Amino acid sequence: MPAQQPTTELDARYSSALNPRPGASEVTATAWAEARGRLEAAEIFWVSTVRPDGRLHVTPCIAAWHDGVLYFSTGRTEQKAKNLAHDAHCALTTGANSLTDGLDLVIEGRAEPVADRARLEEVITAYETKYGPHITSAEGTFHGIGDAFRRGDAVVFAVAPDTAYGFGRDNGVYSHTRWTF
In whole angstroms, how large is the CA radius of gyration of the chain? Predict the structure, then answer.
């Protein structure tokens, strides 16, 4: 199911609003539209899953935001596929690698395999549009991924957010936003 429009909340406990520094008093929650735009543009995500024995598994992946849902894939025999078969809860993260500027995002939800062929074709189009020659060119790193999706060699998972978090940094002024769906 596509994500609804979330409620947005600034968590002042973890924001510069409680720290007396220039600009801190003006800290506001990050708008969902901005976060969504960053999700659409982000090239690399980290997916966190839980192994059956309770240990965490974290790995990088590519993902596409389409129609209110974040999609990623994995091989059927890869660790994250095994983990998600046991427990569908996961988190996908993306962001900036800077202490003073950027916006880090965390999307929490349940990863559901995409079985509907029409939806799968929409996801393939979203991947091809987002990653371009990385997928569409014969020399691309992920060339053939769409065909792998169609054949079922890779499982495509849909994560409609339950909760999302944004950790903003603007020249050293910090914000912590929670979106609840």
Answer: 17
Query: Contact, 179 vs 4, CB < 8 A?
Result: no
Residue 161 and residue 32 in contact, taking contact as beta carbons nearer than 8 Å = no
**With bands split at pLDDT 50, 70 and 90, how would you rate the model's confidence at 92?**
very high
- Please work out, in degrees rounded to the nearest 5, the angle formed at the alpha carbon of residue 36 by the alpha carbons of 30 and 42: 110
Residue 91 burial (C-beta neighbours within 10 Å; 0-12, 13-18, 19+): buried
Could you say which DSSP state residue 11 is in?
-
- pTM of the entire predicted model: 0.92
Q: How many Cβ atoms are within 10 Å of 134's Cβ, its own excluded?
A: 17
C-beta pairs of 114-118 under 8 Å, 24+ apart in sequence? 114/71, 114/156, 114/157, 114/158
Query: How many CB atoms within 10 Å of residue 153?
Result: 13
Judged by phi (left if over 0) then psi (alpha if -120 to 50, else beta), residue 32 lies in alpha
Give how far Cα 24 sits from Cα of 14, 17, 73, Å: 12, 5, 39
Computed over every residue of the chain, the mean pLDDT equals 93
Please give the structure tokens belonging to residue 92.
């996908």
